[in-house]
Design brief:
187 residues; 3-stranded antiparallel sheet; alpha+beta; 2 domains; 55% helix
Length: 187
């Protein structure tokens, strides 16, 4: 069987740019609210406690400010997006290469409008040893919530979920057939 050419799925600059614009806007709005004094907020005609509004604005600044900083970093780290080749799937999400032989099976998962590919691994602890402490924590949360530490979404990529799922499933099936045929010939 002839090896398949590597496939690179680029990140979607439009989606990431929209997220960056929204986070900058909401961070600015939160900062503006924080500059107002309690009397100005009370005069706005709301019956909500002005201090509560300022606390909510402070949380908004923290969350959306972090997002404002994280989006350019994520774009830089994922500038090559996702790469699928004969070795496996390359992504910064799980620290580099997720080799085909590490994947026992894959499945699709959907919750509301969020769609994810779930990769069930033979030995998930090997992968968690390769990633940072923060990513390791995220992988533990994935394991708790969806039953596997390795998930992949298409939210930041230039590809539809169904197409990404099909491509990865085809490549994984080709790898399994190649290794099964190799074992049969050796036996």
């Amino acid at each position: 069987m002839k090896p398949a050419l590597p496939l690179t799925i680029k990140p979607s600059l439009l989606k990431m740019g929209g997220l960056l614009l929204a986070s900058v806007t909401l961070t600015g709005l939160g900062l503006w609210i924080l500059t107002l004094d309690s009397q100005e907020i009370a005069n706005a005609g709301r019956s909500v406690d002005p201090q509560l509004i300022q606390v909510i604005a402070a949380f908004g600044v923290l969350i959306f400010g972090a997002t404002t900083l994280a989006v350019p970093v994520a774009l830089w780290q994922s500038r090559h997006g996702l790469r699928i080749d004969d070795q496996g799937i390359h992504s910064h999400t799980w620290g580099g290469l997720l080799a085909w032989h590490e994947i026992s099976r894959g499945s699709a998962w959907q919750n509301a409008r969020q769609q994810l590919l779930l990769f069930h691994l033979h030995q998930p602890e090997h992968l968690s040893a390769k990633v940072s402490r923060l990513r390791r924590h995220a992988m533990r949360m994935n394991l708790k919530n969806v039953g596997t530490p390795v998930v992949l979404g298409n939210a930041a990529l230039k590809i539809r979920f169904e197409e990404m799922h099909r491509l990865i499933a085809e490549r994984h099936a080709a790898y399994q057939k190649l290794t099964t045929d190799g074992l049969a010939e050796a036996g």
